[in-house]
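Dear colleague,

Following up on yesterday's call, I've attached the two folding results inline so they're easy to grep. Please treat them as preliminary; we haven't cross-checked anything against experimental data yet. The first protein's sequence and structure tokens come first.
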Amino acid sequence: MTTRKYACRQCGNSAQLDPSNPWRPFCSERCKTLDLGEWFGERYSIPAEAQDDFNDAADLPPPHTPRPQ
């Protein structure tokens, strides 16, 4: 089995992309933790859909609320 190597997404050092690397896609636990900190600090984000898509949900009753008959 050949070992695939690539650049760590946090620091750019060489990292292995196989089960022997418990921190993949990072090279170390430190890089994995730093990346997680970026997400928690809201410095990374995933674009959301337009806010208008959620306006319809505001008209729905809360979960487990009996509906009027």
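Below is the second protein, in the same order (sequence, then structure):
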Amino acid sequence: MSFNYAPWPSPANVFMGWSTRESGFSRGAFAHNNVARHVAGDVNMDLNRELLRNRLKGQPDIRWLNQTHSTNVALAETANCIDALDATYTRQVGTACCVMTADCLPVFFWSLCGSQVAVAHAGWRGLANGVLANTLAAFTQSEVACGIGPAISQAHFEVGDDVREVFAGWPGVDTNFLPGNQPDKYWCNLAGLASAQLRGLGVSQVYLSDICTYANADRFYSFRRDGLTGRMANLIWRVSR
């Protein structure tokens, strides 16, 4: 399957999930289902985007972003591919919030009543600078659940002491940064850091996919593993009840 619906509990009118690299038109380093325009050289990207939309329930309008590891959040209906945006939200039916990933965290947000949804792209910089907090602040409802989709796992994400220092005051820092193979290197658990922050912000329901993009080369793109590579789409949208 080229699109996997998330298995987490959600309102009946909310759908979310992520594409895989399977069953698309791209070739070479981008094989097969790359959806990113910013990776130069893939002439089949638009065909993959069309294929993806046609396979989604309700065929929502997908809002593609210009992601820059920022903390900027916007209403999906007004989002464009020029402004630097790494998260969108919507209360509209038929509009899909979307972020592209190839190791970074895709973090899904939905109100428990099903009236609003959002998704954020969070690498370590965006996470440290507050993109998840900014996305949560866009909700008008207090009861919000979150899910963290496929991303690089702690076993494959080695970072320097500079990154660990950025998160020094965060809860669970000792377990989310384990000693690496070299001095001043650490294995970083991005999903663990995000989960801890979300719970600290009052989100009591945080779900994890426990899928590593780096370790699953047949199904997922990974920038750290491959360098030149494609991107997956992570989408959440509302349908009519």
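For the second protein, one point worth flagging: The mean pLDDT is 96.

Best wishes,
A.L.
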